[in-house]
Structure to design on (596 residues):
């Protein structure tokens, strides 16, 4: 009996060895290739083309349907359009097999990136037995043509990413950095940021000239004091913000501060209207006059410098990319000297038109006469406009619109809109016509304010459209505005992770002019709206400047507003795609196409 049991055990062991041994062999036969074995990729530079070859193992194929990508990943990400070879049919699908040869012209890459670059080839293939591999990626480094100074400057002046500008500060020579920031300043001089400073400076020159015509030297010196004061202010603010991580310009947007400065502009306006004269005490004027006789000034240096300081903090632009880049560089490296010099040079470049105003005021200003009273009154109206502009950052939209309306209608009355035709002759008829235009526009603003409009450019927007949608939600109602506040890092990341699409996050605040331009010009543009359908759009209002607001800016290394950051489909922050300042609609639409 025991022998029988032993035989049965041996037989079962033999059968199991045969069965499982065969199964093991079958498993070995079913073993799939590793990705490195299934896909072999090479890329070699030959002449003016990069010859690439993707070798596919036996029974491996790649579908001719968005499964083969060629892109540059460094120094910037660029998707390349390549000429693929002809594919063939496989079970009703178009596929590539065995070898895929693709040549990429070097000129196509070097026209889009400068310097050394990294080419990335991504393949997604399948085995005939039904398994599909994860995307297989291989990268190749190539030497590119080093950009010259002018090419570098040209590309950086178009750069909206503060981190990249900060990298330039740390990697380029001091001379190049200073030249770059001077050009940044000249370009900023062509933006609306500088325009409000022109009437301020002009009014100072006119008020200091008294009844006489200012000399070229005196007008230029006044402009130089104004511009240098503005430049020093930007420099100090930037350096302190970089070293301490403080947003000083945000602190200057405090309602009390804005109200005081607006009152100063109103006081200056009434002085220009001739109701009174603003001047330092006689004892102060005599001392300042004595100290500045060589420069031809008469007690106006201190006032001019103060106005330059206020213009930089209040009327100046929201944080622009070069300013943010310099601040970020200072905060990372602690090199306040180079960062401060760069900011000062940029501010001087931005002040070039103001220096030309000074020269022109001294050289081309006509002889003294009654016309100077009219010029002073014009500048007085501009001062009132600047006061409304600042108060508009803290007052309700309706109140701001009504103030603008009263300013235009009041100007029309002052210009004699209702004077009889016999009382106006010659060129004065044109001023009466302009007065009629001001009255009509002022009345339009008044009607627009009552209808709920918030745009002085489109006062009748409530009568012509239902609302402007951004990423599927209107942004016009107070309730929506309120929902954009109170964001924390945790709340933002929760919304980002809940999205199955890339995410756009717009940081703005009520006191930021460029933020309003983005909201009314860039985001509603049809091309931008078309691209935003592929994104989740999150708007964050930093007006309160709360601890959570400051933490958000610090988390993503941002300074001021507006700033736009992006998260990919994988919910990861894409720092190199961040944008600072106003972005034109066409440029923003193209930028959105590069986000994945």
């Amino acid at each position: 009996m025991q022998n029988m049991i032993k035989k049965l055990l041996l037989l079962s062991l033999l059968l199991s060895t045969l069965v499982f041994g065969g199964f093991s062999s079958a498993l070995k036969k079913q073993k799939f290739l590793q990705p490195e074995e299934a896909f072999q990729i090479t890329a070699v530079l030959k002449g003016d083309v990069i010859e690439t070859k993707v070798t596919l193992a036996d029974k491996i194929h790649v579908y001719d349907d968005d499964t083969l990508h060629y892109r540059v990943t460094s120094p910037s990400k660029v998707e390349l359009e390549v000429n693929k070879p002809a594919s063939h049919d496989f079970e009703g699908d178009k596929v590539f097999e065995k070898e895929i040869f693709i040549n990429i012209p070097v000129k196509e890459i070097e026209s889009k990136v400068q310097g050394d670059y990294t080419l990335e080839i991504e393949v997604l293939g399948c085995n005939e037995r039904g398994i599909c591999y994860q995307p297989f990626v291989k990268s190749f480094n190539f030497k590119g043509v080093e950009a010259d100074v002018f090419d570098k400057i040209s590309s950086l002046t178009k750069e909206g990413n503060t981190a990249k500008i900060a990298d330039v500060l740390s990697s380029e020579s001091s001379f190049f950095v200073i030249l770059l920031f001077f050009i940044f300043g000249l370009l900023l001089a062509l933006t609306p940021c500088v325009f409000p400073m022109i009437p301020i400076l002009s009014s100072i020159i006119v008020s200091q000239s008294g009844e006489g015509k200012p000399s070229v030297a005196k007008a230029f010196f006044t402009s130089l004091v104004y511009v240098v004061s503005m430049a020093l202010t930007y420099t100090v603010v930037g350096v302190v913000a970089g070293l301490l991580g403080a947003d000083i310009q945000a602190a200057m947007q405090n309602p009390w501060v804005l109200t005081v400065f607006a009152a100063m502009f109103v006081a200056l306006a009434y002085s220009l209207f001739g109701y009174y004269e603003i001047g330092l005490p006689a004892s102060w004027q005599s001392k300042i006059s004595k100290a500045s006789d060589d420069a031809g000034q008469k007690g106006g240096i201190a006032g001019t410098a103060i106005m330059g300081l206020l213009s930089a903090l209040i009327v100046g632009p929201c944080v622009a990319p070069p300013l943010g880049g310099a601040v970020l560089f200072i905060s990372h490296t602690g090199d306040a000297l180079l960062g401060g010099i760069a900011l000062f040079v940029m501010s001087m470049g931005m002040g070039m038109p103001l220096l030309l105003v000074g020269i022109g005021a001294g050289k081309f200003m006509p002889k003294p006469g009654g016309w100077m009273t009219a010029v002073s009154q014009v500048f007085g109206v501009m001062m009132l406009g600047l006061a409304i502009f600042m108060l508009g950052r803290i007052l309700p939209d309706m109140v701001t619109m009504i103030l603008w309306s009263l300013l235009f209608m009041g100007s029309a009355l002052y210009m004699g809109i209702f004077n009889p035709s016999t009382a106006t002759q010659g060129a004065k008829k044109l001023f009466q016509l302009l007065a009629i235009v001001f009255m009509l526009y002022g009345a339009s603003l008044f009607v627009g304010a009552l209808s709920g409009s918030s745009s002085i450019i489109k006062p009748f927007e409530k009568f012509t459209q239902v609302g402007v949608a951004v990423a599927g939600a209107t942004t016009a109602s107070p309730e929506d505005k309120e929902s954009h506040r109170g964001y924390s890092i945790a709340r933002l990341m929760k919304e980002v992770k809940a999205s199955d699409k890339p995410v756009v996050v717009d940081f703005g605040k009520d006191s930021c002019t460029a933020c309003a331009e983005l909201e009314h010009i860039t985001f509603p543009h049809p091309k931008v709206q078309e691209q935003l359908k592929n994104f989740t759009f999150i708007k964050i209002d930093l007006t309160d400047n709360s601890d959570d607001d400051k933490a958000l800016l610090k988390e993503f290394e941002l300074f001021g507003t507006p700033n736009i950051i992006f998260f990919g489909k994988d919910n990861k922050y894409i720092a190199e795609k961040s944008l600072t300042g106003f972005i034109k609609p066409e440029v923003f639409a193209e930028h959105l196409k590069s986000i994945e």
In short: Confidence is low (pLDDT under 50) at residues 6-11, 13-29, 291-299, 466-479.
